[in-house]
Amino acid sequence: MADIRQVTEDFAVAPQLQPGDMAEAAARGFKLVINNRPDHEAPDQPTSDAMEEAAKAAGLHYLHVPVSGSPVLTAVEAVHHAAKHAHGPVLAFCRSGTRSIITWSLGQLEKGDRSREDLIRIAHDAGYDLSSVLA
After folding, report:
1. Residue in 80, 72, 69, 90 with CA at minimum distance from that of residue 4
2. Going residue by residue through the chain (135 aa), what tens digit of pLDDT does each one get?
3. Coil/strand/helix, residue 75
4. Cβ–Cβ contacts within 10 Å for residue 69, how many?
5. Which of 29, 47, 115, 127 has the fewest CB atoms within 10 Å of its CB?
6. Dihedral angle computed from the Cα positions of residues 116, 120, 126 and 129, in that order, rounded to the nearest 10 degrees
7. Are 25 and 91 in contact (CB under 8 A)?
8. What does pTM read for this prediction?
9. How far apart are CA 6 and CA 20, in angstroms?
C-alpha cells in the first residue's frame, strides 16, 4: 500500500492508491476514502469508477472530489463536509497527497476548525509544507 501519512487522528493522506489497496485501507480502520485526483490525469492511474467499486467491495464509503491545481471552494467544502460527517477515519489521496492535504487544510481554516499555525504544524509533521499555501 502507498505511503499513508497520518495528519490527525481521523484524517490521513496518501499518494495514488490502487483498487487492491482498498481492503487494506478498510483493515486499517478507515471508513471513507476521498479521491482528489481527476480521471485520466496519468495514463496508468485507475479510474474513479474502479476505485469506487473496490472501495465499496471493501466496505468503505467513497467520494470523488477531483482537484486540478489549487482547489476551488466547492472542492474544499465537499471535502470538509465529508470528513466532518464521516463515521470514522478518512483517507484522502491524489498523485502525491499534496492536493488532498491542501484541500482538507483549506476547509479546516475556512470553517475555523483549526488555526493557520496549527495546520502548518500538523502538515509539516506529516511531511508537507503548507506555509505558502495557507498565507
Report:
1. 90
2. 779 999 999 999 999 999 999 999 999 999 999 999 999 999 999 999 999 999 999 999 999 999 999 999 999 999 999 999 999 999 999 999 999 999 999 999 999 999 999 999 999 999 999 999 997
3. helix
4. 6
5. 29
6. 130
7. yes
8. 0.96
9. 20
